[in-house]
Amino acid sequence: MTTKPYLAGLQEMGAVWSNSAAAASRWITQGLVDPDAARVVSGSRYWPLGWVRDTGPQLQRKSPVLDQAALDRIVEEQSPGRWVFAKEELPPIIGSKELTALFGLPAPSVTGFISEGRFGRPDWHVSGSPLWLLDTAVDLLPILRARSEAGRARSRKWEIDREVEAALREGRYDGPGSQILLRGKGAVAAKGGA
């Protein structure tokens, strides 16, 4: 089993640098934080926590202060774990959108299993989102089948799409969740709204 790395989303980045998720988002648009240093999972960016911790010098004109207590809290919440400093060091990580593709099931089937607590404990809750190591999700297949058989959803067929699994492992996945989800004014503009 892969030891999971410590991760940070916008909420954790803001907390580590004594600020908010909104401020961390602005740092990206201001060019102070490299969005390409993040892995995109289920439409959101996640950075190695080691990279986030070491980002401070780039933010100096914004007067960030490292909040050691916040950093320690994140590490404690995600332990056991390991420090990594580049997205290339991250193992395959998936969220609910990638799970729907991996198992070839409609999103409501997968999200229903997750919300009912029947999918299996996530490896992380980062910025409010459950995330899993790909290996964790694959290893859950026999359990998911048994829970489906024992539950109301006997018609659900839990099978792994091996092409999706290979694409996730090889870093070439381009299915649901592989693109950043636009929110707010950006989402309206992208849809042609006012």
Explain how this protein is built.
This protein is mainly alpha-helical and 194 residues long. Helices cover 42% and strands 10% of the residues. The chain contains 10 helices and 6 strands; from the N terminus they run βααββααβααββαααα. A 3-stranded antiparallel sheet has the order 1-3-2. The chain has a 3-stranded antiparallel sheet with strand order 4-6-5. Helix 1 packs across helix 2 (21-29) and helix 5 crosses helix 6 (107-115). It is elongated. Residues 186-194 have low confidence and may be disordered.
Strand content: 5-15%
Could you give the distance between the termini?
48 Å
Give the SSE order as H and E letters. EHHEEHHEHHEEHHHH
What's the alpha carbon Rg, rounded to whole Å?
A: 18 Å
Give the quaternary arrangement of the chains: single chain
The 3D shape can be described as elongated
Mean pLDDT: 86
Domain unit count: 2
The SS-based structural class is mainly alpha
What is the percent of helical residues? Answer: 40-55%
Major sheet attributes = 3 strands, antiparallel
- Read across the widest sheet, the strand sequence of neighbours is 1-3-2
Number of helices: 10
**DSSP strand count:** 6
Give a quick summary of the entry:
With 194 residues, this protein is mainly α.
Q: Secondary-structure blueprint of this entry?
A:
Blueprint: E1 7-8, H1 10-16, H2 21-29, E2 39-41, E3 44-48, H3 49-53, H4 68-78, E4 93-94, H5 96-103, H6 107-115, E5 124-126, E6 129-133, H7 134-139, H8 141-150, H9 162-170, H10 184-190
Antiparallel strand pairs: 1-3, 2-3, 4-6, 5-6
Helix pairs in contact: 1-2, 5-6
